[in-house]
Design goal:
The protein contains 17 helices and 10 strands. The chain is α/β, with parallel strands linked by helices and about 425 residues long. The strands form 2 sheets. A 6-stranded mixed β-sheet has the order 8-7-2-1-9-10, sandwiched between helices. A 4-stranded antiparallel β-sheet has the order 4-5-3-6. Helix 10 runs antiparallel to helix 13 and helix 15 crosses helix 16. It starts with 7 loop residues before the first helix and ends in a 13-residue tail after the last helix.
Length: about 425
């Protein structure tokens, strides 16, 4: 694969790593050969980590050496993390992962068929999910199967697609400076950030979707142009309805009992406030999810979880969190409102990214992010604009992000 445009600081880090690793291993190290192939062990890896701390400061964690296991990838990561004036890359991209509702039959088929990189990562995620879904997510996508809208398949499929898209960006040299996920997108964000392994995330996502699929019907969701305080006032009069998500200053989603939502819709429209019932099977992020919580938590407790290695902006808390993402967090995540607006504003203010990349099968959150950033905010773009997105479109996104072209990863068919 051809190299991306590497700045002087990244090249300096690469030269330093080649010299230092060579001294530990007793031979010259190539930039693209995994450390494991040279027999790098944990003792040498920890020593290398200490050298980095001593010479450059707290740029990485010890586990990053295994997360970015070549000189080229580790050098790019070091340059990305170095925020000193004049250091690092000019592009500082944050990844924002889309939630349920953006899925569609055949999503990312064009990428799968014509980009070997994306195909590799989607196959990897589909294999991790297969023991739980009972069918291949790849087959589901390529066959344009409408079951992709069923919760039990929608959530695993979205997770797989978003994981594969993010890994494809990383493979092209785009290392995120922070991550944020909306709803089910938070599982892909946590996996990319290193808080969940792919295998553990696949299990959690699959059981989550299946448990939700069999909840009683009768619940729904409604997008409104109401401010959160207006929506909360009306929801207080309807015991079966709560705020499901706050996406922007005047973009609040209500979730709960269908009859209650209908009454609120009448009241809001009487005030001239637009509403749109969403095409969902259940009232996600509402107390109507409570019957599945106990058995989900039992499953989640068996998985280790951990703290993110990247700045992780939680839509449960509406801010960056450094707490380990254990079972209690993922259980609360099911009924808690999605505080996307708070989390996104915090990310923009604290991380000052040059670019925000929406990672999902279609653009949903990008308009909100653009309005939050304002005229002088980051450039906001989506990896997939819609059903027709293919590898050529992805190459354009990578070019905008100053990454290497995808020409070498196109399938030869």
């Amino acid at each position: 694969m051809s190299a991306h445009k590497r700045g002087p600081h990244e090249l300096a880090y690469a030269d330093w790593l080649v010299e230092r690793l060579g001294s530990y291993l007793g031979r010259r190290v190539a930039e693209d050969v995994p450390f494991a192939e040279y027999g790098l062990d944990s003792v040498a890896a920890l020593s290398l980590y200490g050298d980095i701390e001593e010479d450059f400061g707290p740029l990485i964690e010890p586990t990053d050496i295994w997360a970015y296991p070549t000189v080229r990838r580790l050098a790019a990561h070091l340059a990305q993390r170095d925020t000193r004036p004049g250091c690092g890359n000019t592009v500082r991209a944050a990844f924002v992962f889309t939630g349920q509702g953006c899925q569609h039959p055949g999503m990312t088929s064009g990428l799968y068929l014509h980009s070997t990189g994306y195909r590799t990562f989607l196959d990897e995620a589909a294999d991790a999910l297969l023991p739980y879904t009972g069918l291949s997510i790849v087959d589901l996508i390529l066959s344009n199967d409408v079951r992709v809208h069923q919760t039990a398949f929608a959530q695993p499929a979205l997770f797989a697609v978003e994981y594969a898209l993010a890994r494809t960006l990383e493979e092209a040299g785009i290392q995120p400076v922070a991550v944020l996920g909306h709803g089910i997108g938070e599982f892909a964000a946590a996996t990319v950030a290193g808080a969940l392994s792919l295998a553990d995330a696949a299990k959690l996502v699959a059981v989550r979707g299946a448990f939700m699929q069999y909840l009683p019907s009768g619940g729904g969701m409604m997008a409104t142009c109401a401010a959160p305080y207006e929506a909360a006032e009306l929801a207080a009069a309807e015991p079966g309805v709560d705020i499901g998500a706050i996406n922007a200053a005047k973009a609040t989603v209500l979730s709960g009992d269908l009859k209650g939502l209908e009454r609120i819709q009448e009241r809001l429209e009487a005030r001239g406030i637009a509403c749109l019932p969403l095409k969902v099977t259940h009232a996600f992020h509402s107390p109507l999810m409570e019957p599945m919580l106990s058995k989900f938590q039992v499953v989640a407790r068996r998985l280790p979880g951990g703290a993110a290695r990247l700045p992780f902006y939680s839509t449960v808390h509406g801010r960056m969190t450094t707490e380990p993402l254990y079972a209690p967090y993922w259980t609360e995540h099911i009924t808690a409102p999605v505080r996307f607006a708070d989390a996104a504003r915090a990310l923009l203010d604290q991380q000052t990214p040059t670019h925000v990349v929406e990672v999902g099968p279609r653009a949903v959150l990008t308009p909100f992010l653009r309005r939050m950033g304002g005229t002088f905010g980051p450039s906001c773009l989506a990896v997939c604009r819609g059903p027709e997105t293919n590898a050529v479109d992805l190459a354009g996104v990578l070019s905008t992000l100053d990454a290497w072209p995808l020409a070498d990863s196109f399938a030869r068919t």
